[in-house]
Design a protein that fits this description.
This protein has helices spanning 8-14, 40-47, 62-75, 86-95, 112-124, 138-142, 167-177, 189-192, 236-239, 250-254, 258-271, 277-287, 290-309, 328-334, 350-360, 390-396, 412-424, and strands at residues 79-83, 103-107, 128-132, 149-155, 181-184, 202-206, 220-224, 314-318, 342-347, 365-366, 376-378, 403-406. The protein has 427 residues and is of the alpha/beta class. The protein has 2 domains: 3-287, Aspartate Aminotransferase, domain 2 (3-Layer(aba) Sandwich), CATH 3.40.640; 290-424, Aspartate Aminotransferase, domain 1 (Alpha-Beta Complex), CATH 3.90.1150. Helix 1 (8-14) packs antiparallel against helix 3 (62-75), helix 3 packs parallel to helix 12 and helix 15 crosses helix 17 (412-424).
Amino acid sequence: MDNKEYRLATLAVRGGFSGDATGSVNLPIHPTTAYNFQDAEHAADLFDLKVGGNIYSRVNNPTMDAFSERLNLLDGGSGALALSSGQSATLIAITNLCEEGDHFITASSLYGGTYSLFTNTFRKYGIQVSFVDPAADEDTLFAAIRPNTKLIFAETIGNPRMNVLDLNKFSSLARRSGLPLVLDNTFATPALLRCKDYGANILVYSATKYLGGHGNSLGGVIVDLGNFDWGNGKFPNLTDPDPSYHGISYWETFGNAAFIVKARVQLLRDLGCAMSPFNAWILSMGMETLPLRMQKHSENALALARHLENHPKVTWVSYPGLESSPDYRLTRQYLPQGASGMLAFGVLGGRSAGETFINSVEMSNLVTNLGDTRTLVVHPASTTHRQLSEEQQVMAGVLPDMIRVSVGIEDIADIIDDFEQALARIR
C-alpha cells in the first residue's frame, strides 16, 4: 500500500507493514540475530553501505524497522530509528551532531533523566549545554548561541511543568541560527502535534510512554524529518569522510537521509542500544490505537484538571488545556485536538500533604512511568527529578509540593472518585 495516501488513524493501524510472503495480516516478530547474504560480494556491498539490507539485528531488524517506519509515516519524516529506550534516542540524537568541544542549547523545562544526561554525563565527554527559559523572547534566546553550537533542543510539552513550547518562535530561532531544531514530542505524539508543520527537524520519543500506551515495553525512536541542510558548513560529522566506512560522506551519499543513516550505521552500530524485536512488536500493536487513546487521555485530563482547579484542598493546577493556563493560547494554536494526558497540581499543606495524597490513592498507581492506559501519580521532587539539586529542580519546573498525574483512559468518574477520597484524607 502507498502509506502516504492515508490519514493518521489509518497509518497508525496499517503503516510500516503491508504483508509478507506468508500473507500475514499482523506484523511478524523476527527473533533472529543475523541474515543470510546472497554471496561474498553482496555481503561486502552491505558492509560498505553500497546497498541496503539486513546484516545484524543490532543495526537492522524487520520488526524493529516496521515499527519505526510506522511512526515515521505518522510524523511525515524521511526515516526513523528504533532504539532500546527514550533515553537512548536522546543520547544518539545529540551525539550524532555533537562531539567534544561542541555546544547546544536546551529549554530548561525537561524530564529529570534528560536534565541529568545533559548536565552530568555530557559534561564528562566535553559536550557543553546552556539552559534557556523557553518563555524568553527570540533575541534573548539567540544570545545563547555560540560559534560551536550544534543544535537547539526542547520538549514540546515540558515534563513536568506542562508548559507548551512556542514552536514558531523556536523554529524561527533555529532558522536564524542555521541549526537543527530537535524536539522531544513524547507527551503530545503525532496524534496531537505534527511537529514538521512548525519547522522541527529531528524528533525523539520515549516509545515506552504514549506510543506503546500500556506500560509493558521499553523503547525509543528518532525521526528525521528530512528538511535540514546538513551541508551548510556547520556539521563536518555529516559532510566529512567517515574513516569507519572507507571515507564515505553521509551528506553526499544519502542527502536528506544523512542524519538518520549515520545514527544507525555509526552510533547504533558502536553503542549497541538496539530495540528487541519483541518490544518492537508490542509497541507496534500499541500504536494502532494511538489516536483513540490520545483523544481519551486528553478528555479525561481536562475534566480532572477542571475538577481539581475548583477543589478547596488544591492550591494550583498546571494543565495547558485549562482556560486559566498561561499557555492556553499556545495550546489552542498548536494542540487544538487535545493537550495530552499529563497534569500537575499542588495541595494545601505542601509536601507532607502531597505525600498523604499519594499514599492514599487506591485505584491510581504510584509509579514513575507515564502514558499508560492506567492513571499514574508520582512526586517528581523525590523520584523523576531526585538527582537534581533544589536549584535545578526549580529551573526544570519542579516544585516541592508538585504531584504529577498521567491521566488514564478509565471512566473519568472513577478517576475523580479516587482523587476525592485521597484528598479527603488531607487534614
